[in-house]
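Q: Structure tokens for this one, please.
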Amino acid sequence: MVLKVTRFVAVLLAALTLGLGFCHLMQLPSRLAWDQFLWVGSTVQGGLDAMFGTVGALIEMGAVIVLALLAYFVLEHGRPGFRLALAAAVLYALALLLWWVIVYPVNVELAKWVNGPVPTDWTAWRARWEWGHAVLAVLELFGFAALVWSVLEDGPAVAARVRSVAPSKPAPRVTPAPKARPAKRR
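A: Here is the predicted structure, written as tokens:
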């Protein structure tokens, strides 16, 4: 039951995380064409991405933790799909690490633009921010694919094989009730 619940939570959190990343990926072509006023106004000053940094961050961290737990539980229970579950955890962890390396420094710079001047090299900052999110989305997509594959590796056919190979518990010993003796006729 623990494995099933962990799988459910892992798929849910990983899907939500992928959804956040996929939003950035789908917006990439349009956002790269925006002028300074539109991009800075919506990204920095408009708060368009405000929930990504609060709720999204909690979802992403939760996904990495639960995916690592899932890989452990799959291994611990001797179920198939461990390598794929581990790959999913590693890919999502790598995406989170790269967010800190690529995107977070840009967010620190963007915070200076809220009330201050926008630098002349703003397009370089925009490119790093947008392409950084695109890289994360691709990693999360591969991680999600590995997660789904790991779950499918342990499908009904595998469960039936495991049940047929698993040692069964001996049947409880039941002592038969004593047979009733026929009554003697007098």
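A few notes: The helical segments are 2-33, 36-45, 50-76, 82-111, 122-153, 156-165. DSSP finds six helices and no strands in the chain.
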